[in-house]
């Protein structure tokens, strides 16, 4: 009889494809059997009456990263990975960020050094490209893609990070040539800068005016422009942290035209609104992020975008800056304008429980959709499937066992990040992972974390199928080889 290191018995196993009651057999950190009944194991976990789900993939989080205002996020790889595990996430994908004038290779090497020996769960790196020099695009980026960093992010705003359209086109062309997935922070920088200046000049400096400066049309226009540039180059694109209806409409139109445009959203756009930034004194700073939370009507559009598949990825965009900290939200003091508040909110640990409670249990999405948008789709888009994001023979035993009746009141004190607040303080939710397994090892037992720092491994991502071009240039001209496509006539040809 086959022996297992671990058997999970009696649970309802759910993937993006469906659910069934079955046992899960694990050996040497991988799933090796799924059957009605499995025995003969060194360890047994009784999951009767509980859900057995793929561990979540948080494909957008900022850990041990210096932000655009020059301060570092509060969570390092140890605290960030522990917090993620306690919320049912088994893979994190933070960013190795290039500063202008810095070698991309140097940025990645430094980030490896920060992660080494710290993470309790597995991790991969996205890149952030802020200085796309010929050497970066021609030498460093292709080499790093071959080494498993097969996705990168570009910004259309933030002075320290933004690229202009010409730079964007060069970056997109490189992605097409090398097979990488491009993520875009889509907001119109000049609109935001102009509105910010006008607001400050008029004396409107409180945190709530951050939302006014980052008006929805700035996100809509940049989303449209990013999609247009991607269409010119014939390369897929992921628009990150989509906040509301206007950007969703742009993504949906592109998808309906057959373009490979993907959308991502985050907890702050489902559970926060602009009114949260309108708090007495400086309290509104806790909710300042970009794009900002919108209104209740836009929350409904985001839920609809998740339900109908327009938004296929749900990440935290965890960007933790402590409130009572001169290296956090109060970097420039409580009298500072909204322009000087570090942008970002925490969300690693609560991402999945809040989506489960408010999405699955309230009938907004199915359990299978929950698995798809919290794990499986990200694994596919970023070249980690089928190792991650599913429960299948051969996959890593990254599993979260959920008690669907466990009631939790969220508070900063109960969470395991390095923050002094949570924007979701006092919210009651139902459903929480009571066991989290990373490669078959328990890293969260429902009451305390148990993973050893340093056990997490760096994941080399494959070049994802989702990033493959369609082979169609809207102009008929292939800029890579300088030729017109077969059968295409130029305007001056008969």
Describe this structure in words.
The structure is a single chain. The protein contains 12 helices and 22 strands. The chain has helices at 77-86, 104-115, 134-146, 165-178, 189-201, 209-213, 216-233, 245-256, 268-271, 296-307, 351-360, 367-381; strands at 4-9, 12-15, 18-21, 23-27, 30-35, 41-46, 51-54, 56-58, 89-92, 95-97, 122-123, 126-128, 151-155, 181-185, 237-239, 261-265, 311-314, 399-409, 428-438, 441-444, 477-478, 483-484. 54% of the residues are buried. The protein has a domain at 56-387: TIM Barrel. A hairpin with a 2-residue loop joins strand 19 (428-438) and strand 20. Helix 4 packs across helix 7 and helix 7 (216-233) runs parallel beside helix 8. The protein is globular. The model is unreliable at 489-494 (pLDDT under 50). It starts with a strand and ends in a 10-residue tail after the last strand. The protein is α/β, with parallel strands linked by helices and 494 residues long. The strands form 5 sheets. The protein has a 7-stranded parallel β-sheet. Strands 3-2-7-18-19-20 form a 6-stranded mixed β-sheet. It has a 4-stranded mixed β-sheet with strand order 5-4-1-6, with no helix packed on it. Helix content is 28%, strand content 21%.
Terminal CA distance reads: 74 Å
CATH architecture of the domain at 56-387: Alpha-Beta Barrel
Radius of gyration: 22 Å
Structure classification:
alpha/beta
**Approximate shape:** globular
How are the strands of the largest sheet arranged? 10-12-13-14-15-16-17
**Main sheet summary:** 7 strands, parallel
State the CATH topology of the domain at 56-387: TIM Barrel
**Number of E-state strands:** 22
- Give the low-pLDDT segments: 489-494
Query: Fraction of residues in helices?
Result: 25-40%
The CATH superfamily name of the domain at 56-387 is Metal-dependent hydrolases
Q: Give the class-level CATH name of the domain at 56-387.
A: Alpha Beta
Helix count, per DSSP?
12
User: What's the overall average pLDDT, rounded?
Assistant: 96
Percentage beta strand: 15-25%
- Quaternary organization: single chain
């Amino acid at each position: 009889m086959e022996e297992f290191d671990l058997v999970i018995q009696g649970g309802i196993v759910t993937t993006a494809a469906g659910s069934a009651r079955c046992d899960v057999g694990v050996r040497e950190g991988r799933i090796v059997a799924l059957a009605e009944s499995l025995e003969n194991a060194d360890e047994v976990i009784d999951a009767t009456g509980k859900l057995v789900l793929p561990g979540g993939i948080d494909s957008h989080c900022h850990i041990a990263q210096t932000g655009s205002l020059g301060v570092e996020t509060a969570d390092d790889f140890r605290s960030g990975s522990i917090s993620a595990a306690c919320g049912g996430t088994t893979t994190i994908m933070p960013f190795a960020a290039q500063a202008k004038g810095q070698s991309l290779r140097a940025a990645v090497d430094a980030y490896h050094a920060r992660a080494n020996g710290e993470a309790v769960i597995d991790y991969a790196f996205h890149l952030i490209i802020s200085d796309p020099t010929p050497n970066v695009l021609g030498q460093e980026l292709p080499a790093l893609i071959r080494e498993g960093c097969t996705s990168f992010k570009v910004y259309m705003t933030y002075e320290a990070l933004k690229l202009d359209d010409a730079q964007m086109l060069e970056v997109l062309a490189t992605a097409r040539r090398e097979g990488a997935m491009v993520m875009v922070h889509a907001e119109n920088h000049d609109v935001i800068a102009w509105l910010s200046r006008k607001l400050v000049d008029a004396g409107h400096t409180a945190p709530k005016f951050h939302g006014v400066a980052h008006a929805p049309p700035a996100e809509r226009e940049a989303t449209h422009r990013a999609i247009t540039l991607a269409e010119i180059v014939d390369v897929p694109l992921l628009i990150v942290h989509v906040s509301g209806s206007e950007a969703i409409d742009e993504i949906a139109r592109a998808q309906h035209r057959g373009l490979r445009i993907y959308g991502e959203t985050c907890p702050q756009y489902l559970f926060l609104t602009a009114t949260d930034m309108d708090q007495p004194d400086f309290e509104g700073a806790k909710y300042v992020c970009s794009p900002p939370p919108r209104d209740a009507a836009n929350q409904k559009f985001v839920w609809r975008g998740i339900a109908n598949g327009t938004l296929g990825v749900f990440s935290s965009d965890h960007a933790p800056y402590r409130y009572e900290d001169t290296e956090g939200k109060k970097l420039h003091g409580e009298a500072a304008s909204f322009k000087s508040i570090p942008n970002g909110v925490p969300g690693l640990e609560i991402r999945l429980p809040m989506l489960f409670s408010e999405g699955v249990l309230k009938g907004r999405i199915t359990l299978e959709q929950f698995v798809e948008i919290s794990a499986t789709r990200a694994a596919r888009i970023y070249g980690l499937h089928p190792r991650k994001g599913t429960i299948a023979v051969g996959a890593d035993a990254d599993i979260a066992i959920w008690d669907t009746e466990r009631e939790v009141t969220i508070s900063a004190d109960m969470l395991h990040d390095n923050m002094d607040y949570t924007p979701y303080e006092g919210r009651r939710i139902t459903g929480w992972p009571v066991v989290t397994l990373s490669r078959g090892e328990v890293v969260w037992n429902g009451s305390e974390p148990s993973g050893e720092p340093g056990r997490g491994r760096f994941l080399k991502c494959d070049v994802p199928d989702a990033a493959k071009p369609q082979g169609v240039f809207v102009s008929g001209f292939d800029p890579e080889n300088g030729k017109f496509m077969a059968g295409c006539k130029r305007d001056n040809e008969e």
